[in-house]
From TrEMBL:
Catalyzed reactions: (S)-malate + a quinone = a quinol + oxaloacetate
Protein name: Probable malate:quinone oxidoreductase
Enzyme class: oxidoreductase
Alphabetically ordered keywords of this record: FAD, Flavoprotein, Oxidoreductase, Tricarboxylic acid cycle
EC number annotated for this UniProt entry: 1.1.5.4
Gene Ontology biological-process annotations: tricarboxylic acid cycle
Length: 492
């Protein structure tokens, strides 16, 4: 298939980011042609697949890595509040799409799962108390509870306290209005809506080349992997939402903005149980504290998951290392990503992150008993025969230049845009999917500044809080939470 007429928007990668951007464009500019290319046989098979992520719906309700303690012991709520603000934008978009019929009944992709944080030991309890004090009066964190009482914590989720040493000091926080999100299902539904609006989704298509032409358009070389048939397409705008594959494609594009960026791949595994007797005793997502040197995405957590209407429990992740940037890619991803402009920052990151290297080495050598012991710190009654080990999605953390250190390992997401706005891509990992809507709105603002003024009324219709901070207005925050909760059938 060779396209002579340029496509307005080409989306590379069939994950939640491309699906969200496609859905937004179809709402804002329905006359634009949109085409997505995914190299696998289905969309949402890498990081957006529900078994490749924790589906937490990151709102910073339970994730401690968004509020680390400062050297003086104080805690700052600003990042946690910011993450929650972003998640509310995603919630508002999903609610609007449900109301307009673009998305199906919400139970197909979002379900109730209280968010909890659980810690052991007096120093961690003191920290959690400070975190609770900093968040409990925030408009977006209303309803947060704190307890050091084992009986109370056991009422919230029995598996945490059952047969635990009564002398062990523990504490937990809980927000009943947390959610579990099946980002795989959500991705498929969003792409379905793009197709209904006239867009196209081509699976088994790999982008093998990307080059800017003299006329400013982008020429993409493609290979249909069923039959190895080559083709090409020209595009006015390209979004590279290919997860771990984004770095190589952005490097191939030749845009100077990607210089100095590298990627550090981290693999992972989860323990999963579908034993109904075990699953019935735990209805929450419970996050703990990361080990020393562990990346934020490796914070241990015991999660309720609802996938295809079936409940399960997930524990992990157990981090590891592989040079692959995707679960289904090649072992040469890391070495092939090295360029003269990023080798310095990459070496600097290795020098300054010895704790991470040590942690990953320990994880790689961990056997089943060590994995079980980690689970039993959350769930003392855990038995390995109830659990199976599954491979999580591959994550690629951003490495980039830093004036002081030479290079830094950045945890989070990074939007890369070309100077003329004709190409954009996304690097990084968590909170990722949960904040897809605000990230894609940022892409639109950067790449289509001339259109944004005309789009704003529609954006505000979809996302009433757009351009404001709910955390600055308790009444607006309460109203937004109540409105989206009603549509999505979840607690406010």
């Amino acid at each position: 298939m060779n396209s002579e007429t340029p496509v307005d928007v080409v989306l590379i990668g069939g994950g939640i980011m491309s699906a969200t951007l496609g859905a937004l464009i179809k709402q804002l500019q329905p006359d634009w042609t949109v085409r997505a290319y995914e190299r696998l046989g289905e969309v949402a098979q890498e990081s957006s697949n529900p078994w490749n992520n924790a589906g937490t719906g990151h709102a910073a309700l339970c994730e401690l890595n968004y509020m680390p303690a400062a050297p003086d012991g104080s805690v700052d709520a600003s990042k946690a509040v910011s993450i929650n603000e972003q998640f509310q934008i995603s919630r508002q978009l999903w609610a609007h799409l449900v109301e307009t019929g673009a998305l199906p009944e919400p139970h197909n992709f979002i379900n109730v799962a209280p968010h909890m944080t659980f810690v052991r030991g007096q120093s961690n309890i003191d920290y959690l108390q400070k975190r609770f004090d900093a968040l409990k009066d925030q408009p977006l964190f209303q309803g947060m509870e704190f307890s050091t009482d084992a009986e109370k914590i056991g009422e919230w989720t029995p598996l945490i306290t059952k047969k635990r040493n009564p002398k062990q000091k523990i504490a937990a926080t809980r927000i009943e209005a947390g959610t579990d999100v099946d980002f795989g299902a959500l991705t498929r539904y969003l792409f379905d809506d793009v197709v209904k609006g006239g867009g196209e989704v081509h699976v088994n298509h790999q982008v093998t080349g990307i080059k800017r032409q003299k006329d400013g358009l982008w020429k993409l070389k493609l290979k249909h992997l069923v039959g190895n048939t080559p083709s090409q397409v020209t595009a006015r705008f390209v979004f590279v939402g290919a997860g771990g594959g984004a770095l190589a494609l952005l490097q191939q594009s030749g845009i100077p903005e990607i210089r100095g960026f590298g990627g550090f791949p981290i693999s992972g595994q989860f323990l999963r149980t579908t034993n109904p007797k075990v699953v019935a005793q735990h209805q929450a997502k419970v996050y703990g504290k990361a080990a020393v040197g562990a990346p934020p995405m490796s914070v241990p957590h015991l999660d309720t998951r609802v996938v295809n209407g079936e409940s399960a429990l997930l524990f992990g992740p157990y981090a590891g290392f592989t040079p692959k940037f995707l679960k289904t890619s090649t072992w040469f991803d890391l070495p092939f990503s090295i360029r003269w402009h990023n080798i310095g920052p990459m070496l600097a990151v290795a020098w300054h992150n010895f704790d991470l290297v040590k942690y990953l080495a320990g994880e790689l050598t961990a056997g089943r008993q060590k994995k079980l012991k980690a689970l039993q710190e959350f769930m003392p009654t855990a038995k390995m025969e109830d659990w199976e080990l599954i491979t999580a999605g591959q994550r690629v953390q951003v490495m980039k230049k830093d004036a002081k250190k030479g290079g830094v390992l950045q945890f989070g997401t990074e939007v890369i845009t070309g100077a003329d706005g004709s190409i954009a891509g996304l690097l990084g990992a968590s909170p990722g999917a949960s904040t897809a809507a605000p990230i894609m709105l940022d892409v639109l603002a950067r790449c289509f500044p001339a259109q944004m003024k005309g789009w704003e009324p529609k954006i505000r219709e979809m996302i009433p809080s757009y351009g404001t901070k709910l955390s600055d207005n308790p009444e607006a925050a309460a109203a937004s939470l109540a409105a989206t909760a009603k549509v999505l059938n979840i607690p406010a």
